[in-house]
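Please, does this match?
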Amino acid sequence: LTGMSHMVEVRDGLLRRHEFYPSEADLPLCTLDQLQGAATVAANAAMIERILAGEAGPRTDIVLLNAAAALVVSGVATSFREGVARCAIAIESGAARQTVEKLRAFGRTIG
């Protein structure tokens, strides 16, 4: 999100290199400092909770972009723009938070 990134796509056994710009996913540019995590585990956990609650900003944008990448790789989304939009809906609707809560509950059963 700080500028252009180099990407390599592997498809049908072929490598395709290209440049990716945040604007391709309708995301604004930001600085590296704006993406930096907090100093403690507790503060980072609180940051994640704020993102899941719908807080806007560069940290949310990077979460959206990374989740969108997973959707693109898995074939659920055909583009980063579509993936970001789907992930934003998941956060806005509370579905992302519900999934995290399910993972937490599962973790408590095995740990």
Observations:
- The longest helix spans residues 58-74.
